[in-house]
Amino acid sequence: MFHKMIFALALAGVATGVAEAQTAPAPLPVPFPNAPQTGAPAPQAPGQPGGANPQQQGELVVDVVGGVSAPLGIAIPVMPTSDVVNTPAGRTDQLGQQLAQIVTTDLRNSGLFKPLDSGVKPVLFPEVTAPTFDYWGGAGASALVQGFIRANGDGTLTVGCYLYDVTSRAELARQGFVVPPSEWRRAGHKCADMVYSKLTGEGPYFDSRVVYVSETGPKGKRIKRLAIMDQDGGNHRFLTNGQAIALTPRLSPDQRSIVYMSYVEDRPAIYVYDIESGRQRLLVPNTNLTFAPRVSPDGKWVLFSMAVGGNTDIYRVPFNGGTPQRLTDSPAIDTGGTYSPDGSRIVFESDRSGTQQLYVMNADGSQQQRISFGSGRYATPVWSPRGNLIAFTKIGGSFRIGIMSPAGGNEQLLTDGAQDEGPSWSPNGRVLMFFRSSGGGNGRADLWSVDLTGVNVRRVPTVLDGSDPAWGPLRP
Amino acid sequence: MAKLTTSLLIGTALFTAACAKKPPAVIPPPPGQSVVDPNAGQPSIAPGSRADFERSVTSNTVNFALDSFSLDDRARAILDSQAQWLTRYPNVPVSLEGHCDERGTREYNLALGDRRALAAKNYLAARGVAPGRISTISYGKERPIALGSDEASWAQNRRAVTIVLN
């Protein structure tokens, strides 16, 4: 099913002349229906992204399974404002520039779009819903994203986002987002998600966060801090002060907590960190080494590893605490357990065969079965949110990121770094974030991403160095 | 001191040098006696202290083969010297730190470091050191002692280190 996923573009329906611009242009930017809650986008997505087959409608489409391999030319001019107003997030005209930049960066980083580098002219406010298609076509854009920003009387901001097919001169999608000033960047990510979903048919992923381990200092005495940021590196925040080593964080499905491992009081163990209050609690109050925490998709369990008398097995414990329940009992090292998206199965690594290999089992620990049989060792398995792939670290001289089916077939290696480790899936299952270490005394680790083609490899910007990225779900 | 064969002593000396642990410039006095340093400002070494341990034992560190937690002859000889000292000071608690090289993944190495610390602990316990005195902590690959990415550095980083806790 997923042999070689070649991302490509197809401009479908160009000749059909479907959109002779008979549909009247949308009215001037008017207030979108107000969102019921601050922070929630206004609910009026036209159609469901990825639902219908856009090709049949003769629309612009980014084909992700075959075709010509070249990113789609897209123009994203600065989003004008009807009225320049100072807000806690900045002046609305400056926010309009930054929003266009966020959309541009998101779409470019997906590897599927090529935002115009030049010829992006300013857009007047009334032009947002009446694009100058001839101009954009001449500038080399197949698609056009226009929008506006407006400060509302109640202190919120409204961001409108419109997607056009330049060739057919048709509006493809529009959405409005009402956000508090503190979350203005999310409106940009939501806009990019709308464009991405509409043109690729894939699920959105830009409006999401990443927890990771921020690293700094000499190799033998690295300071490792828990940190959280937006998927693109924005809104970066340190959560721990670095006095104790922090490792292997994971966001809970409700995104309110982070499970991670801390060396606080020289007792390495798993803690549950509450993001809002900054308080944390020990997950399993005993003296054993506990590590490798992962929360179940329903949020009710934490899967983890515990070393008892030198034997590491996989256990689960209720998220709110309780008695750990042992799921594996091999005398080998069993660790890295991760749930399938429906919570019914677990993939984990074990060296019971002599070297680290991948195994799957039912959520209660029954029916353990090896799935990796290639040369080398396999570690850090993680189940795709779509359920159809398992990503892992392949150890064979170097460390590389790879994918295989949950039955163990169709293995593909996606990266070629010397030391790439610890993949984590984007919410839509099309991109993996991981960390890449460089060797030697000045060795450091940084966050990188790669998509399923293995072609689009990018460094993820962080304030300091970084490791152990864990990509959270799409934000509500 | 432990009665070691000549070859072991040579091996130990080589090993010690490789670890960049300089032998004391002056031959230490017999254990059990504190040293009053003639130079003001230099602390004396109290019997039963961490410094006393580290100058008395063959090494505070044992090393392991790749992806292994078994103790070879050299490691056992080193632990024998540690057990002797620990028997002499039966009230001193120690911590055993388990470490790995960078060629394993982070979580796996936490488990492997735990196994190495426990292997050393169990050996000391078999030599008569009360297990209740020995705590263990795994650092995985998070605290390398040699910073290179080469065989020699990796060999040094695969280790269990005995730390006197006082």
Automatic annotation (TrEMBL), chain B:
Keywords from the UniProt entry: Cell cycle, Cell division, Cell outer membrane, Lipoprotein, Membrane, Palmitate, Signal
One Pfam entry name: OmpA
Topological category with respect to the lipid bilayer: Lipid-anchor
InterPro entries cross-referenced by the UniProt entry: Bact_OuterMem_StrucFunc, OMP_bac, OmpA-like, OmpA-like_sf, Pal, Pal_lipo_C
CDD domains per UniProt: OmpA_C-like
PROSITE patterns xref list: OMPA_2, PROKAR_LIPOPROTEIN
SUPFAM superfamilies (UniProt xref): OmpA-like
Signal peptide limits: 1-20
Span of domain OmpA-like: 51-166
UniProt keyword annotation of Membrane present: yes
Location in or out of the cell: Cell outer membrane
Function recorded in the entry: Part of the Tol-Pal system, which plays a role in outer membrane invagination during cell division and is important for maintaining outer membrane integrity.
Subunit structure comment from the entry: The Tol-Pal system is composed of five core proteins: the inner membrane proteins TolA, TolQ and TolR, the periplasmic protein TolB and the outer membrane protein Pal. They form a network linking the inner and outer membranes and the peptidoglycan layer.
Family to which the UniProt record says this protein belongs: Belongs to the Pal lipoprotein family.
Protein name as annotated: Peptidoglycan-associated lipoprotein
Taxon lineage: Bacteria, Pseudomonadati, Pseudomonadota, Alphaproteobacteria, Sphingomonadales
Gene name tied to this protein: pal
